[in-house]
Amino acid sequence: MRERHNKRSVSRNSGFPLPIALVYPNTRKVGLSNLGFQFLFNQLQGSDVFSPQRFFVAESFLKNPSEHNIPVSEEDNIPLKNFPVIAFSIPFENDYWMVPKILIDSGIKPLRIDRGRGDPLILAGGVSVSLNPEPLADFLDLVFIGEIVGDIDEPGGLWSMILEFKKSRIAAHDREGFYNSFRNINGIYVPEAYGFNYGEDGGLLEIRPDQGFPDRVTATKRLSTKETPPFAMVHDQQTQFRNSCLVEINRGCGRGCRFCSGGWIHRPVRHFKYLRFRDTVDQAITDKKTIGLIGSDLASHPELNIILSDIINRGGIFSLSSIRPEGLNDEIIELIVKSGQKTATLAPEVASKRLKKVIGKQIPNERFFELIDKLVAAGTPNIRFYFMIGLPTETEEDVQEIVEFVKNARQIFVNASRSKGRIGRIGVQVNAFIPKPWTPFQWSAALPKKQWEIRKKIIENGLCKLKNVVVRHESLRSSEVQAILSRADRRISSSLLEAARGGKLDISSFSASHLNARFFLRGYEIVKRFFHGML
Fold first, then answer.
1. Phi, psi at residue 43, to the nearest 5°?
2. E strands in 267-324
3. How many CA atoms lie less than 13 Å away from 186 in the CB half-sphere?
4. Is 272 exposed, middle or buried (0-12, 13-18, 19+ CB in 10 A)?
């Protein structure tokens, strides 16, 4: 957070607008690059009934995590504890521990059970908590599950509910009664209203909702494509997408890759018509901003060629969040080069034909080799590959095929580059498979550390002597933490609280939990039955 002194306080009386703290539990540089966080802030800011202010983690925290910083707002240096409503936007599990950390540093009781009359309402939303809110359940009053739907001021939704909270503070100060008012509102999970029974082995036996609360919380989805899609102008030069205009033109993916949560929780696939965000593109071109097109499956957007051609023909520049090989036709490749992109990113994920079938991403290696030749010939000097290791049924032979894939790709890359008079670089990013909720692989086991090291060495030893090839691995420690939090429940809250008090979160932090955290890394028998016909 920014370390400044308080200039003024936030009013907690009944007057409008309602002050609301919007907290991104990472640095300003990361938060301002997040379209969801920016979009929500802009919506709240445009409302007549809310007065939002943003909070980020101080850059100094990265250098000294044990340092105590009093969180103050980006806009007016107002302490977080002065706000009656605090909303966390959390897209990544590894930032979960920052929720109690930020509350503690603000002088706010981190555990919900310890808060009461006069304390702020704490809520959270974002992709990670929509997948699994339970690790944070003991810290939160309310959780928003799904996508922001409709206008901020629309009756019956999340934000009108928050206004209701303001009234309840003025009147009875009855939190239990307040929680009960959300029993029938889609997309709202009230952790206080759910109890759990566990077996001797630690497995979940029963979920016990309080009377009137649903057995299942229905996620909200923005199904209409007739409204303006989420967008944000990024002005700050310190962010990843500096001087950019980010626009989500597609949501959801119908490809069905079994490891990808985005392809399952955001169904059905929705594409925004160009007409709906043409004005945003016009403004971005006028302001000389790079237009960052965001989507889970840009390749299937029916107007992609038209959108990119229009941007280029009017002197604009675009970037693509990702695009599958199916969408990289000759025209798209030419437009990418004209836009000045120096690196093309391709995600084979795996290289063996058998494992491609298992994960549901059956793009032949030959298609990637063909694209490398076309991209380099068109003027793209660098290629980046994304691979995963630790996927269900994976063997060391499957990992060796990644090595052979990169060797073949490099030969094609070098041959195509020579005709250009320069040879760029191939980046190989290797990440660990993380079992994610709501995917067909949600009950698979995470790869044990020893196996990770062995398979990592296969790739390193196979590629280390190749010129123009750079291999990078995701941190195993970070991957283990993410894998635990992806499927953990509220029994892990003591570990997050201990991490917050100690100033760091790593695998050792989970010793504070009553349950061995590695319980959440294991696989389940149902997975073996599911893959029986694919082995």
1. -65, -45
2. 270-271, 290-294, 317-320
3. 11
4. buried
Place of tokens 């003991």: 138
Contacts made by residues 151-156, CB under 8 angstroms, sequence distance 24+: 151/43, 152/43, 152/44, 152/46, 152/47, 152/49, 152/50, 153/47, 153/48, 153/49, 156/185
Q: What are phi and psi of 335, to 5 degrees?
A: -70, -40
Select from 266, 187, 189, 184 the least CA-distant residue to 230: 266
Q: With a cut of 80, say whether residue 273 has pLDDT above it.
A: yes
**pTM to 2 decimal places:** 0.91
What is the structure's pLDDT at 72? 95
Residue where the block lists tokens 């010793």: 511
Query: Per-residue DSSP letters for 476-513?
Result: HHHHHHHHHHHH--GGGHHHHHHHHHHT--SGGGGGGS
Residue 107, CB-side half-sphere exposure with 13 Å CA sphere: 8
Q: Which domains does the chain have, with CATH numbers?
A: 18-209 (3.40.50), 223-341 (3.30.750.210)
Number of residues that make up the chain: 535
Three-class DSSP category at 210: coil
End-to-end CA distance of the chain: 50
The span from the CA of 134 to the CA of 198, in Å, is 14
Q: Quickly tell me which residue has 């009855």 as its tokens.
A: 174
Confidence bin at 171 (pLDDT 50/70/90): very low
CA atoms of 178 and 115, how far apart (whole Å): 14
pLDDT confidence of residue 166 = 65
CA distances from 340 to 297, 316, 323, 363, 535 (A): 22, 11, 16, 27, 44
Distances from the Cα of 424 to the Cα of 89, 214, 319, 324, 377, angstroms: 38, 56, 20, 22, 12
Q: Are 327 and 344 in contact (CB under 8 A)?
A: no
- The span from the CA of 31 to the CA of 238, in Å, is 11
Confidence class for position 322, pLDDT limits 50, 70, 90: confident
- The pair of structure tokens assigned to 340 is 């000045």
DSSP, collapsed to helix, strand or coil, labels residue 3 as coil
Of 261 and 535, the one with more pLDDT? 261
Residues 6+ apart with CB under 8 A from 214: 183, 184
Read off the pLDDT band of 165 (50, 70, 90): low
pLDDT tens-place string over residues 329-369: 999 999 999 999 899 999 999 999 999 999 999 999 999 99
Tell me the backbone φ, ψ of residue 157, rounded to 5 degrees. -105, -170
Residue found under tokens 């030749």: 373
Q: How many CB atoms lie within 10 A of CB 146?
A: 19
